[in-house]
Amino acid sequence: MGLTEKPLSTLHEKASYDLDDFEVPTGREEAWRFTPLSRLKGLHSGKAEITGRVLTQAYAPAGVTAEWVGREDARIGKAYVPADRVSAQAYNAFEKALVVTVPKESVPAEEIRIEVRGGGSDGVTYGHIVVVVEPLAEAVVVIEHQGSAVYADNVEFVVGDGATLKVVSLQDWDDDAVHVSHHHAQLAKDATFKGFVVTLGGDLVRLSPSVSYTGPGGDADLSGVYFVDAGQHLEHRLLVDHSQPHCKSNVDYRGALQGEDAHAVWIGDVIIRVEAEGTDTYELNRNLILTDGARADSVPNLEILTGEVAGAGHASASGRLDDEHIFYLQARGIPFDEARRLVIKGFLGQLIEKIQVAEIRDRVLNAVEAELAR
Predict the structure, then answer these.
(1) DSSP readout, 169-236?
(2) 10-residue mean pLDDT series, the chain (374 residues)
(3) What is the pTM of this model?
(4) How far apart are the first and last CA of the chain?
(5) How far apart are alpha carbons 27 and 35 in whole angstroms?
(6) 67: phi > 0 → left, psi -120 to 50 → alpha, else beta; which?
(7) With the C-alpha atoms ordered 84, 128, 96, 44, is the resulting torsion angle positive or negative?
């Protein structure tokens, strides 16, 4: 299948299952100008041999099905069309896809767990996951990434009429891992999607969460927390495509950076099409730069093609710790190091508290504590 007739937006002009529709990026393209291509280890060029090792396992509670299928399965690629070279490469190179289905009107007693574990960074590998939540069902999904790998994948979330899906995606890779991933949520009429991304590990991680609507009344909430250490490149590129009336979206990502050449990139694209009257949307990104030598690039974009919106806005801020907050705590007898730690924990903790799964929430809080103790 060639290029789609309807581009995602003026900032995302291509969507195709065909790898040949995408040129190998050079770094001069808008979509790739922040990404250090030399550190992708061939994921973007297709020249690397597919010899990597990644084990993906699903743990599904009673009533939920998890199955491995071939690419001929009709559920593969139904919600998401690749929007760049690496995404198309992953779509054309995976061997089997994991499909998880939550039946109509069901509410599983436990969260669905998907574990992705890398077995080494000496070769690239690709994957594909589809999560289908049928009408009026509710589910919580945790996707956890660990180990070492050079890995690209696409993840499709298909949320049916009146259904609710909550997803926590944890990137806790080893220091040498490279991960490029697209997470796409397709929301039907009156569907709700809450996605929470936590990115801590890896040498280079580039995640692209996106949302589209197929009926009115959809509600998407995208949140994320990241902590960038010396030499790390953590990149999040979001797209919310409002093409249906009376839908909502809210985006809130926060990051902290410390160490030489720590680099965070956040791109937030929201488009409100002519037919999407009554849209209510807001996106926010905030970064705390804790040391010299760290860099945060934050670019919010909002395209409004109709005058009939309920609300639309965006904001972005990157800066140092607020001296007034530190002084306030020190004036009450709290030492500087402890005051600094409390301010950073408070900044990130406001979002971390939104994580639905207590075990993951505690792990993330402990990981932030460990980062601050360095």
Answers:
(1) EEE---TT-EEEEEEEEEE-TT-EEEEEEEE---SEEEEEEEEEESSTT-EEEEEEEEEE-TT-EEEE
(2) 46 80 92 96 87 94 97 94 94 96 97 96 94 98 97 98 98 97 98 97 97 98 96 97 97 95 97 96 95 95 91 88 64 73 81 90 89 77
(3) 0.93
(4) 50
(5) 7
(6) beta
(7) positive
